[in-house]
Amino acid sequence: MGAVSADAPALQRGRPWPMGASVDAAGVNFAVYSAHATRLELCVYDDDGANERFRLPLPARTGAVWHGHLPGAGPGLVYGLRAHGPWAPHDGHRFNPAKLLLDPWAREIVGTFRWDDRQRGHASGDPARPDPRDNGDIACKARVIGDDGYDWQGDAAPAVPWADTVVYELHVRGFTRRHPGVPEAERGSFAGLASAAAIAHFRRLGVTTLELLPVQQFIDEERLVRLGLSNYWGYNTLGFFCPHPRYGSRGGGRALRDEFRDMVRRLHAAGLEVVLDVVFNHTAESDETGPTLAWRGLDNAHWYRLDADDRAAYENPTGTGNALDLRHPHVLQLVTDSLRWWVEQFHVDGFRFDLAPVLARGDRGFEPRAAWLAAIAQDPVLQRVKLIAEPWDIGPGGYQLGAFPTGWAEWNDRFRDTLRAFWLGHPVDRGEFARRLCASADRFQRRHRAPSASVNFVTAHDGFTLRDLVSHDRRHNEANGEGNRDGHDRNLSWNGGVEGETDDPAVLERRARLQRALLATLLLAQGTPMLSAGDELGHGQRGNNNPYCQDNELTWLDWAGADPALTDWVATLIRLRRDGRLFPDAWTTGRADAEGRVDLDWLRADGRAPTVADWQDGGERVLGARFGAPPDGGPPWLVLFNAGDTDRDFVLPEGRWRLRLCSLPGAIVPGDDAPPLAAHCPLPARCLRVLRRVDG
After folding, report:
1. In this structure, are residues 323 and 282 in contact, taking their beta carbons and an 8 Å threshold?
2. Is the pLDDT of residue 2 over 60?
3. Which of 276, 507, 584, 691 could pair with 657 as two cysteines, CB 3.0-4.6 Å apart?
4. DSSP secondary structure of 184-248
């Protein structure tokens, strides 16, 4: 249907703001960004998006924004866009009015994306020519929404200080899909995540902040669909303003939005923050062979970073085929509008930005003062939420750990790799271990950042689970359909000479010790700890360290096979972190205060201070850390580490010390009436012990 129908209303000029479709008392205003289009059409569909009713050209243009007002229209109207302009891929232009386009500012998406050659803008087998076939009947459309009128019932953000934050990274679907305590109809959904059983687990652990893998609406990649797989993690966004329909238990539309809001409200009431993992570095349109869904068809040359030598190709610092170009103001506006939408409409407490350096890339690489970072810093809504960067991408100069501004936190892979190396027997010295234990001051302190800026982790969604980390020395990703070539080949893992599952008691004991020691070091270290969901249960994925496409029992948490003792161990550690306060909320100095107390000093197994040679000795895996001025004002703490293969005897500092924690499986820590230790403390292999002085 290319002509205006006889009963079509006339579009008025409208306003160039706000972007997308907005409802007012007289109708609906549409504002669409395209700097290079010669004509933009609004295509209105019936309620289910199956049939086009009429199309009208947007009558006005202000700068690069096309706009028009449809009188008498309101919430529920379904629409798409068609963009006319040059088809000149080598100049960056891929306009094709035969393709119906989704509004990038869509608040609700109608239809389920399905792969079909008509979804591509270029002709099949000939990327130099546009495809003339119309895809309006199968394309995803937008639905106009108004004020949902949700009753937040006095909801208030927990506003957990960074110094008290314990992050728990989880997948909405995988967390409750197999949970017997969650109503069956709610398993794998937003409602399930806010169920009484789920909240009880979070509170039992003592975590404060849930970091959800992507929940913005996404699609499955074509290759996965052909293999009978699906995108499980969700890093392939189609709708930056829309909750993902697969995670709803009550249906789509407003019901889906309200289910998400219910989840946030219930989690807030339990004192838990909600942080979203967001993917603004690329879109679901992939590279130049991918589909034309929205951005590519509206203004490819401005939405994406294109190859300077051939603008038919894309810069690819993301590894996914394209990268959004936040150097353009309206691309930046999409990102900030989306972030504010999730804070204001859904009350989320912060964001973790996937491949964050992509968003701050200027003409010459990463820029610490990039427009995106400046826009967030000055925004009165966004400046008050938690901001976490994944501080690397795969482009030139893409590793930027420690380079983000004050107020940001960053995933710290140096912490991950060092702890794994120290406990699992890979090359590392004690100096490097001590630096990571103290919030990586070499990366953050010199930029006037707080210790909490270091988000410490041992495992995350991307890589082995903790159980698999100590059970496998190589990946087992055959089920992913890539010939076991995907994922990291070497994850600093350890298997004790036995690959995979085993009944050998000695191997099982070593693995259990390592899991508990790694968890203890993570949760007692300075910085912000992040726990990967399932590690406290002993959940494994049969050695698959890249299960991005495994939406099945491989990735869904195995609650029936959970290790309750390991869960209790994690809860004990978080409680000690919260109540014991080993580290101050400031950088340690190693110098005495006015009362003669030293905040932190280090000890060898013989009780003496390490020398320079000791710090650089990669063969010795025993170290003690004495916290002489804990924030609670009480007596000193002492943490002893033995990552070696043999039991040791640690000479204690002066005073009398009582054991408060031991990482050995099944260890019984004596009570306050137990005789304190003096002179020395036995320190088993692969063990961490915590002591506190009892005589002042």
Report:
1. yes
2. no
3. 691
4. GGGTTSHHHHTSHHHHHHHHHHT--EEEESP-EEE---HHHHHTT---SS--SEEEEEEE-GGG-
Q: Which of 209, 215, 195 is nearest to 266 (CA)?
A: 195
pLDDT level of residue 120 (50, 70, 90 thresholds): very high
Residue-by-residue DSSP string for 240-261: EEEE-GGG-SS-SHHHHHHHHH
Is the model's pLDDT at 138 over the cut of 90?
A: yes
Residue 668 has pLDDT above 90, yes or no: no
DSSP string spanning 346-377? H---EEEETTGGGGGEETTEE-TT-HHHHHHH
| pLDDT of 494 | 67
- CA 467, CA 686: separation in Å to the nearest integer? 16
For β-strands 361-362 and 350-353, DSSP reports them as: unpaired
pLDDT at 1 over 70: no
CATH for the stretch 163-580: 3.20.20.80
Residue 599, both tokens:
């905040």
Q: Sorting pLDDT into bands at 50, 70 and 90, what band is 5?
A: low
Distances (CA, A) of 126 to 120, 307, 313, 335, 660: 11, 20, 15, 33, 70
Q: How far apart are the first and last CA of the chain?
A: 85
* Cα angle 172-178-184, degrees, rounded to a multiple of 5: 90
Mean predicted lDDT score pLDDT of the chain: 95
Res 584: pLDDT: 79
CATH hierarchy code of domain 20-143: 2.60.40.10
SS (H, E, C) 520-553: HHHHHCECEEEEECCCCCCCCCCCCCCCCCCCCC
Q: How far apart are CA 172 and CA 161, in angstroms?
A: 24
- What is the rounded distance in angstroms from the CA atom of residue 689 to the CA atom of residue 675? 16
CATH 3.40.50.1010 given to domain 601-693: no
211 a catalytic residue:
no
Per-domain residue ranges for the chain? Answer: 20-143, 163-580, 601-693
Report how far residue 357's alpha carbon sits from residue 280's, in angstroms, rounded to the nearest whole number: 11
Beta bridge partners of 677: 657
47 is catalytic: no
Identify the burial level of 227 via C-beta atoms within 10 angstroms of its C-beta, where 0-12 means exposed, 13-18 middle and 19 or more buried. middle
Query: Who contacts 397 (Cβ-Cβ below 8 Å, separation ≥6)?
Result: 357, 365, 366
Long-range Cβ contacts of 374-379 (<8 Å, 24+ apart): 375/332, 375/336, 376/336, 376/339, 377/405, 377/407, 379/336, 379/340
Catalytic residue from among 390, 410, 599, 601: 390
Catalytic residue selected from 354, 393, 410, 536: 354
The CA distance from 243 to 582, in Å, is 40
Evaluate if residue 498 carries a pLDDT over 80.
Answer: no
Q: How far apart are CA 174 and CA 465, in angstroms?
A: 14
- Listed in sequence order, the DSSP H helices in 270-380 are 295-303, 329-346, 371-378
Q: What is the pTM of this model?
A: 0.97
Determine the pLDDT at residue 3.
Answer: 46
Angle between helices 413-424 and 505-524 (to 10 degrees): 140
Do domains 163-580 and 601-693 share one topology? The answer is no
Is pLDDT above 80 for 687?
A: yes
* Mean pLDDT, residues 603-611 taken together: 97
pLDDT exceeding 70 applies to what percent of the chain? 98
Confidence (pLDDT) at 487: 87
